[in-house]
Amino acid sequence: MSAATASSAPTKTVDVAGTPFAYREVGTGEGVPLVLLHHVTAVLDDWDPAVVDGLAAERRVVLVDLRGVGRSGGTTPDTFEAMADDTVAFLDALGLGEVDLLGYSLGGIVAQVVAQQYPDRVRRMILAATAPAGAEGPAATGATLQAAVQKATEQGKHPKHFLFFEPSPAGQAAADAFLARLDERTADDRDTPISDQAVGAQLTALTAWEQNTSPAGLAAVKQPVLVVNGDHDAMWPTETGTLRLAQLLPHTKLAVYPDSGHGGIFQYHEVFVRQALDFLRD
Amino acid sequence: MSAATASSAPTKTVDVAGTPFAYREVGTGEGVPLVLLHHVTAVLDDWDPAVVDGLAAERRVVLVDLRGVGRSGGTTPDTFEAMADDTVAFLDALGLGEVDLLGYSLGGIVAQVVAQQYPDRVRRMILAATAPAGAEGPAATGATLQAAVQKATEQGKHPKHFLFFEPSPAGQAAADAFLARLDERTADDRDTPISDQAVGAQLTALTAWEQNTSPAGLAAVKQPVLVVNGDHDAMWPTETGTLRLAQLLPHTKLAVYPDSGHGGIFQYHEVFVRQALDFLRD
């Protein structure tokens, strides 16, 4: 339990079978903890403080770097099955039994696999800006990232302007606001940037997710799931990712935000926090 | 122009080629007027004051009873082509050239046809809880209404509890709040309830919309369109209605609200008003 905010919470480590995993805790809620799983290339500093603090108003929120990511030790595995194992090993190390999961993008895939491999550990899930197995997008993530970095360099912007937000004035203003929030951290223990090894392993896992994995197991997911995204996701298309995911899962609520993309939950952070808390509170 | 609110605006009439059409105006915005087109069985009193007043904060908002509906004269036609003609004849009578349209449910179909028959009269459209031609739902509207009335009678509730809102606690609380807002009207000139003739004609038009009409013309709609609904529409299913409409129209933004149905824009009226004004303001 912690009275810290997303920007002031210290980075802690916990021993997971001999490997230190970095994590932060925000919020003092007494209910089932809410564990946040990050996107490709992300470390703890990439979580939007507006979302984390908004959720922490009612929940104990736990952010984690999985194996090999940021300040966590070890080597990032290149399968989602192994990332799901690591997620549950981390829960064990913290003494957390049943949790809620918020999986964003790649983290949303990890959450899908946790729910299938360890159904007893998940009470509810929020799957944001993510895609079911076999959907278009994940296998092209490496190329999409490279193109965005090149465009960003040419225009003197951050790649997330293009990856996460619409080119509209509202979208680009939301990108500026989001990036400014990421700079709010006052604690001096910023996370370590992700390594090339970790990104490479994540991209390998994403390629297999699109090309060699079946979404059939989603039909057995008994948990209620909030599926959420912007309406024009430039990384993993909303139609084949978000909307299809909502169709494949048996118990879903769907939220789609207009004029927004992969970062829709950050652009509409106030709406998202309200809808997420409503969903988790039921 | 009017400083009235939705609940205090007087009901006026304008002569449309010899037939009086009832309408109300709210808001003093200087921009393109926003014309609201109503759902099956609805009269002017059925518009949510929270939505009307929210939109009127920035826009001149015009509500209309089409031919034969509520206090308007004449006989309701049984085709959407004729309802679209009537809509434009009403705009002519008020001296309105280009307008924005908010079409809700049946009104969203009228708006789709206006945009195709009179493309020069429409700047932007918001299509809420509606469906493209050929989609499942509209032809069953009569049966759906009857079943809801029976269920409502048995449970001592208003049919809109079942037609517009989810059975969840949040959905039913939203229904209560919505119905209470409809009772806020202080002006003593409440509209006349809809006639059996008008409802019958509307249901005939809806059946033809599902069974004998093609959505192909939507591909030529050049206007930006905000397509919006709740995620579980019990009347015209969200997937085959809202999501399909967003796919068929070339220039769309999509908004979907969780744990809500046909009345999603009323349940999430604050979010909807903000998103609608953002969309219209661009």
TrEMBL record, chains A, B:
Residues 33-266 form the AB hydrolase-1 domain. Gene3D superfamilies: alpha/beta hydrolase (3.40.50.1820). SUPFAM superfamilies: alpha/beta-Hydrolases. Pfam families: Abhydrolase_1. One of its GO terms (molecular function) is catalytic activity. This is Pimeloyl-ACP methyl ester carboxylesterase. The lineage of its organism: Bacteria, Bacillati, Actinomycetota, Actinomycetes, Kitasatosporales.
